[in-house]
Amino acid sequence: MAEAVNNSEQFVYDMCSKSFLSLWSYINPQGKTSDKELCDVLVVCDPHVIVISVKDIQLKKTDNPSVDWKRWQRKAIEASIKQIKGAIRWLDQSEYVIQKDGSQGLKLPLQGERIYHRIAVAFGGKREVPISSHAEEDEFFHVLDEQSVFLLLRHLDTISDFANYLINKEAFLFNTSTIINGGEENLLAIYLHNGRQFPSEVGMMILEDDLWEGISNKPEFKAKLQRDTASYVWDRLIQILCQGGFNGEDWLGPDMSESELAIRVLVKENRFSRRMLGGAFNDFLELSKMGQLSSRCVQSISGVGYVFFAYDSDSTLEERKSELCARCYASLCQFQECFTVIGIGVNVPGQKPRHGYSSDLVFLQAQNNQWSEEDVRQAQHYRDKFGFFKNPNKTHCHEDEYPVTENTDNT
Prior knowledge:
The protein has 13 helices and 14 strands. It folds into two domains: 7-217, Restriction Endonuclease (3-Layer(aba) Sandwich), CATH 3.40.91; 227-386, no CATH class. Strand 11 and strand 12 form a beta hairpin. The chain is of the alpha/beta class. The longest helix is centred in the N-terminal third of the chain and has 27 residues, at 65-91. This is NERD domain-containing protein.
């Protein structure tokens, strides 16, 4: 586990690495020199670059609260904003992340495609000092306290969910005068309650301090959290594929490998999509273990096609990868509207393969959202020659993100 300078930084890093996975999260990366810290936490997942500065400043009270607040804001917030600005100036000149130990980290997104998110986390104000997110010269700074950053990273715990919230929040606050009583979790409550978007065409909004308590106590909200446990199968799959599929040179080379491209697609699935995919993958493993199924193709709500394949225990590593690729092509006959297809090959649970364990990834992507004639020809060839997905048993699944339970008050 990477270690921070202090407990506050460690808390935020642990939340980020849990939410966005450790491969994309860096603690105390280096800046201009080896003794210069860039920021406290950096998260990189193309095209997003999240720059986080954490300050733990205990509020000192005198007989003049106004002065106390200003001193705390200067040390806890203004100092973070200054650090974030300097970090982004340096990142604008960089191609790679430099880790805390000086080693090279992930390649940064292309300069013209990067989306920076600036987050200042201020500990120690005890919710006695007013804090607010704001823009400075068209640069938006999200200012959070320890409670709000925990809740945001707990309930928006994928890069897609979190980044979409930050982008939508910026647009909303740029156009709407907003007074937030309590913490930012009350703003999050409005966002979630409104279908993961903020109200439009609203000139001013006052948020009360009980909004988060109200939404988080709803039966359907609690049911969502319970159903989401299936989604973490997908998170564990990503971690396993990362740990078993990459070494430093492959992952950090000048050109992204097929495996890295595939992993990035898996990571960008949001939590609701992961619930569906995690459940489908888990069911597939159980059926393959019982010998009832060797392959399954699934279309995600993101529009990506996935092919799950359980290897024969006698097959060689080359045979496994070749068949997985063939099945991915054959799936195009079923999901022609999927312009990205990811193949995931694993060993049958409980079987000992003759030629060793392996996990494989295959990445297929159409150019300009159009499969070529050669792609279609290969798809038909593998379907007709080997019977892959030629006469599949099709099922359509419906799932509510917030399931309505029997005890839910629908009035």
